[in-house]
Automatic annotation (TrEMBL):
UniProt domain GHMP kinase N-terminal: residue ranges: 55-131
Protein name, UniProt field: Homoserine kinase
Pfam families given in the database record: GHMP_kinases_C (PF08544), GHMP_kinases_N (PF00288)
NCBIfam families xref list: thrB
Keyword tRNA processing listed: no
Any one of the GO CC terms: cytoplasm
Species annotation: Floricoccus tropicus
Pathway(s) this gene product operates in, as recorded in its UniProt entry: Amino-acid biosynthesis; L-threonine biosynthesis; L-threonine from L-aspartate: step 4/5
Residue ranges annotated for the GHMP kinase C-terminal domain, each copy included: 192-263
Gene symbol of the encoding locus: thrB
Length: 287
């Protein structure tokens, strides 16, 4: 049995802790034979546990503590701590692992509830489970999610060669927002989502770049951000935003300007890589 989970790009500007889209980079786990202990074969580095302490197994055991141990092979194209939902991909894979091995027949709503409880917010786990664009709200432990189709566009990611842990990136956010600013921030988010639903990427892009919830506090943590956003403005992208908690800088652009934008970002000679990505429509899959 194999389980595949897509990467995700959360926030998309003003959709902080609420909006995310699934993209075509993947975590894949292959479940092999039963074993006396959990053992994960992976090439993700020494800091990632290979036993029951790995987030995959700790998540699966939270869902079903009596799960029988197996040998597992884990591969991932999703870079760790870069704002592309690596932790959510593992959590969603862990829930699916318990679901399939213990034949729990979990619904998507149940998977989303467990995943949000573990991750703390729904914006990465929801599209990792459902695919495509998801708008979700978790308040007082209750999660409500709406799936939608992301309008036709390409995603261009600049992935820096350094990590930024979500916990560190959340540490620079204010604990409170003045009422007037919160109302303005919420109106920007409302129009961004309405424009995405209408397929109006010009208006959506303008609102995505007007976020007041998180980017202005975090931008200084990602020194490449302004130069890449400028390329987006010069070359006709719809929007450039900080993916998840960063440091990946994500651009939404028409496919017609994709190659030109990729070359322009590469010509900045920054320390990192540039990837063109597409929306994943499926979410978690088990084969
Ligand atoms: N394949 C994996 N196996 C086990 N743990 C993992 C794996 N991938 C990620 N993690 C854990 O998740 C941590 C990264 O999570 P973090 O929330 O900081 O970043 P992210 O999920 O990549 O980005 P973001 O949430 O901003 O999209 C890693 O440091 C590691 O502890
Ligand atoms: N909404 C989250 C996504 C990363 O986990 C944040 O921006 O901190």
């Amino acid at each position: 049995m194999k389980i595949q989970v897509p990467a995700t790009s959360a926030n998309i500007g003003p959709g902080f802790d609420s909006v995310g889209v699934a993209l075509n980079l993947y975590l894949e786990i292959e479940v092999l034979e039963e074993s006396d202990n959990w053992h994960i074969v992976h090439y993700l580095g020494d800091e990632i546990a290979s036993d029951e302490n790995n987030l995959l197994i700790s998540t699966a055991l939270k869902i079903f503590p009596e799960l029988k141990a197996h040998k597992i092979v884990m591969k991932s194209d999703i870079p760790l701590a870069r704002g592309l939902g690596s932790s959510s991909s593992v959590i969603v894979a862990g829930i699916e692992l318990a679901n399939k091995l213990a034949n729990l027949k979990l619904t998507n709503e149940e998977k989303l509830k467990f995943a949000t409880e573990i991750e703390g917010h729904p914006d990465n786990v929801a599209p990792a489970i459902l695919g495509d664009l998801v708008i979700a709200s978790t308040v007082a432990d209750e999660t409500t999610a709406i799936e939608a189709e992301f309008p036709n566009a390409t995603f261009i990611a600049f992935i820096p060669n350094y990590e930024l842990l979500t916990s560190d990136s959340r540490g620079v956010l204010p604990t409170e927002l003045p009422y007037k600013e919160a109302v303005a921030a919420s109106s920007i988010a409302n129009v961004a989502i309405a424009a995405l639903m209408e397929g109006d990427l010009d208006k959506a892009g303008k609102m995505i770049e007007s976020d007041l919830f998180h980017e202005k506090y975090r931008r200084s943590l990602v020194k490449e951000f302004e130069a890449i956003r400028q390329i987006g403005h010069d070359k006709g992208a719809y929007a450039t935003y900080l993916s998840g908690a960063g440091p990946t800088v994500m651009m939404i652009a028409p496919e017609t300007v994709e190659n030109e934008i990729v070359s322009s970002i590469e010509s900045l000679d920054l320390d990192g890589k540039v990837l063109s990505l597409k929306v994943d429509k499926e979410g978690v899959l088990c084969v």
